[in-house]
Amino acid sequence: MSAYPTIIESISISTSSTLSEIEIDWKKLENTGVAMAFQKYEWCKAWVEHMAPAVGASPLVVCGRDVAGEVVFILPFQKRKVGKIRVLEWLGQQSGTACGGIYTTAFCAELGQVWFNKNFRCVLNLLGHLEAINLRHMPKTIFGRLNPLAILHQSLSANASIVLNLQQHYEAILQAKRSSRSISKMRRRDERLEQSGTLSFEVLSGEAAESALQLVLLHKNLQLEKAGVSSGFDHNSVEFYQQVLRVDTKLLRVFRLQLDGNTLVTMVGATADTNFWLLISALAPNIDLQFSPGDYLLRRTISTCCAEGISIYDFSLGEQSYKQLWADDLILHFNSIRALNYRGQLFALSSRLTEAVKRFAKNNTSIREFYYEARQRLRGNKN
Q1: Which of 63, 134, 246, 378 has the fewest Cβ atoms surrounding its Cβ within 10 A?
Q2: Integer Cα distance of 194 and 293 in angstroms
Q3: Least-confidence region, from 118-122, 184-188, 226-230
Q4: Highest-confidence range of 78-82, 231-235, 316-320, 366-370, by mean pLDDT?
């Protein structure tokens, strides 16, 4: 931790470049306070070990304590050089779907927004030499509470996240989301899939889950390559997800659908509190899609979450049509991209412009479809 913590309006602020220094306090806060999956200690630790070196990032964690010495918030940041520009980001934001801090319930509900409105600039001044901040994917609300760092919500992200409320039994949700005709058609399709061989739905753990993780990332890369997306999951990504799975079996969940022992589709999600985030979904190559195995597995994951007492099923960033069918709510995500001095101005301007173009394209159906088709024609693998 920093040698001399700074007291700002009754909150003692210290910084750390090593996660292990505050491991005990971090885990205590995430278990009793408000923490999304992507700010859990084991998630961040695995990211620092396997992903941060590849993007040139180093952790910079801010810890705030009250007058009694109890931690009231942790802000897991990272410093990264983009060219010669030193940029502040959320730790792991390249892999996370929702970024932010960890807070006590009281600080999140009552004190946090007021305190950060007054003092975030002071906190920023403690973080050393920076030219710009590039804080992305900050949800408007965290578990139904307004994000304490709403002061940073400068511009809308290109993507929002769709959520489904699981306050009822699965069958009640299905009846609310589908017409009786649609449900009847869906069940006939399910029956044909189940009669086509030995169909098995599994919630995996241990070595089976680790193996499935490696396979689903391979399948996802094949899908991305076919769509003309050049950046996918590498061996560091595999090791990252596998480490999270090993150290916290409740944090990362792996669901698989097989037919006659062959994988049809795999889905990976993360859990925290009573929230679930769907992170990765990938079909195996060259499978028969006429019975919609992806939709079958999606419905089984929703049913499983209902049975386990999960209250929110978050489809994560992206507003694809299959997600819209389940939508109860839309959580907006925000970015804060700005220069802190003249050296960071070009970086901030180009980053904001790129994000604005992406947001415009995604919100315009004609442009979005043209872009996807052009990308596939130019770079995609049609085999």
Answers
A1: 378
A2: 10
A3: 226-230
A4: 78-82
| 135: its two tokens | 């804080």
Tens of pLDDT along 156-167?
998 899 999 998
User: Can you give the pLDDT at residue 383?
Assistant: 45
pTM: 0.91
CB of 9 within 8 A of CB of 115? yes
Residue 382 has pLDDT above 70, yes or no: no
The structure tokens 């491991």 sit at 23
Can you tell me which residue has the tokens 């990211």? 47
The maximal CA–CA distance of the chain, rounded, in angstroms, is: 68
Task: Find out whether 263 and 256 touch, Cβ atoms under 8 Å.
Answer: yes
By the 8 A CB rule, do 201 and 333 touch?
Answer: no
Which residues lie closer than 8 Å to 148 by C-beta, 6 or more apart?
73, 101, 103, 107, 108, 112, 113, 115, 116
Q: Which of 318, 36, 280 is nearest to 163 (CA)?
A: 318
* Cα–Cα distance, 77 to 336 (Å, whole number): 13
Please tell me the number of Cα atoms within 13 Å of 119 on its side-chain side: 18
Residue 278, exposed/middle/buried by CB under 10 A (0-12, 13-18, 19+)?
buried
